[in-house]
Amino acid sequence: MAGVSLRNVLKSYGELQVIHGVSMEIADGEFIVILGPSGCGKSTLLRMVAGLEEISGGEIAIGGRVVNELEPKDRDIAMVFQNYALYPHMSVYDNMAYGLRIKGLSKEEIDKRVQAAAAILELAKLLDRRPRALSGGQRQRVAMGRAIVREPQVFLFDEPLSNLDAKLRVQMRGELQALHRRLGTTSLFVTHDQVEAMTLAQRMIVMNAGRAEQIGAPLEVYARPATTFVASFIGSPPMNLIPKDGKLLGVRPEHMEPCAASEAMLTIDVDLIEPLGADIIVYGHVGSGESARVAARLPADASARPGQLPLRFVQKNTHWFDPATGMRLEP
Amino acid sequence: MVERRPGLTLLSHLVLVLGVLIVAFPVYVTLVASTQTSEEIVNQVPMSLAPGDSMLETYRVALTGGQTSYGGRVPSVGPMMWVSLVMAMVIPIGKIVISLLSAFAVVYFRFPFRGLVFWMIFITLMLPVEVRIFPTYQVISDLQMLNTYAGLTVPLIASATATFLFRQFFLTVPDELVEAARIDGAGPMRFFRDVLLPLSGTTIAALFVIQFIYGWNQYLWPLLVTTDESMYPVVMGIKRMFAGGDAANEWNVIMATAMLAMLPPALVVVLMQKWFVKGLVETEK
Fold first, then answer.
1. Which one of B174, B183, B285 has the shortest CB-CB distance to A73?
2. Angle of helix A107-121 relative to helix A166-183, nearest 10 degrees?
3. Which helix (H) or strand (E) holds A220?
4. Contact B199/A89, CB-based, under 8 Å?
5. By C-alpha distance, which of A188, A98, A181 is closest to A143?
6. Where does the pLDDT of residue B128 fall: very low under 50, low under 70, confident under 90, or very high at 90 and above?
7. Looking at CA atoms only, how far is residue B173 from chain A in angstroms?
8. CA distance linking residue B235 with residue B233, whole number of Å
């Protein structure tokens, strides 16, 4: 196992630059999630680590060895693709064994590794089947099995859960976590789903338009977003950003609290109410002239109705941003 | 169209039965004629549609050649069938190998003038053998390939159609599969052999059936490049059996030869039908 270093990694297609210098040190055994909206370059970054995309500038090192010029097979990585990319004409066993056979491992060694991976992933009964005869979740597990048997230094996951239905996704998320605890292999996981990122990551990179907006532990990123992009990308509904005194005031919806009109720090004109069972989310405008939308998460027993709603919040839960650059302003 | 109308059902059955009759009747006449003697066919006008009883004798004569009951001499069909079989095997296999490789190159490798190469292949789709037949003949003749198996088959092997077909198929293979193979450490030829080839199985089968029949049915090209009787394919053999001038035709032997000539393509279609249909309608992915 090994750490991964990204040193000012750049990617451009001709004139068009899509990754603008990402740097990060990933420790051995860490589970890193690369999070961002579609088109932000997160998959490209992962594919550069895998060796499927050329690196236009900067360096990527795996286990201290610069891999810029190495073929994917020589980088000691394994990748799980979004659509699984299983070989359709091979059995589950052969799908997992294929890479090992090319490596020239002995039959016994291959069998040992495949059986071990199948046991971990509960695929033992399916080894003779073709991918076609498997469900989505099972295919996903085969794809992971194919990665595990290689015993790589780094696992790369490219949105592996996004083709699964919601329930299965939650289950696979749990299995992924268990797997990482068990194997302790350094993992890079690309997703656009903030829930996946928050639950799986030890640290995450939030990317936007080819830049790493913030790198940090999920709760740290949630508690102290570095930019307005991160603030509005993470959290559902996103952080409210209200222009105030030439700056942007950020307050998360769950930090808003209804109160008496005399104590109000903010009064909104409620026009949309979404009762979710566990809580109620109300949306409204601030004041009359300003157009900033504000959402507040209220307890389930709160009485919410359209009209004026006074809200308060405590100072420690406020964030300030520069409206021009979007950067966080430390108080 | 799912409609319950007895009239429509009747009509569609009528049309189908009619279609079958149009196709099947000539084959039946051929079969019946091959079981009668020449005298029976010629003396009875129109000929009887009931099977005769000299089937074994007729087919023996057709296969081995020699003296017929009618007094004429016919060449043996056996060697002609062999020539046809060689053509019908070499052409599809050669076509499939070359087309697979060229489609593989065009789809998976980035090389200078790739687009140009593809379009050049594509444009030759518009040039069937008949159009370039004289220059091709000149080349084969200059290469001393007249009256050889190579002369019969090589010019018919290059195929834009098959290349195009495989290209289209390769384009539908997901990129991730290529990438997964790269990560697994499979080089280009290994990927070709282990992944692309098995996936193309049904397409190959369909192409083989079509091209087998194409090779078997060649007439014009063998007519040009063969002058030696031992190199005549069976389709030419049938034509040659029609006696010119006053001599009588040995209809029973001609019909038997026709039946024999029909047999291998029919067998190939029947035996490979399952794969053939699969290859044309679906891909295993």
1. B183
2. 130
3. helix A218-223
4. yes
5. A98
6. confident
7. 10
8. 6
Give the phi and the psi of residue A301 in degrees, each rounded to 5: -90, 0
Q: Does A99 touch chain B (CB under 8 A)?
A: yes
Q: Are B182 and A98 within 8 A, CB to CB?
A: no
For B85-100, the pLDDT digits (tens) are 999 999 999 999 999 9
Which of B173, B182, B184, B190 is best to mutate for the A interface (most A CBs within 10 A)?
A: B184
Q: ipTM higher than 0.90? A: no
- Per residue in B24-38, is it b (16+ CB within 10 Å) or e — as a string? eeeeeebbbbbbbbb
| Mutation target among A54, A77, A98 for the B interface, most CBs of B within 10 A | A98
- pTM, two decimals, is 0.80
pLDDT at residue B284 in the model: 47
Sheet with A328-329: list strands edge to edge.
Answer: A240-244, A247-251, A318-321, A328-329
Query: Predicted confidence band at A80 (pLDDT cuts at 50, 70, 90)?
Result: very high
The DSSP-derived string for A141-164 is HHHHHHHHHT--SEEEEESTTTTS
- Which residues does chain A have within 8 Å of residue B179's beta carbon, measured at their own beta carbons? 50, 52, 72, 79, 81, 85
Question: In whole numbers, what is the pLDDT of chain A averaged over residues?
Answer: 89
| 8-state DSSP, B5 | -
Residue A166 token pair: 């919601």
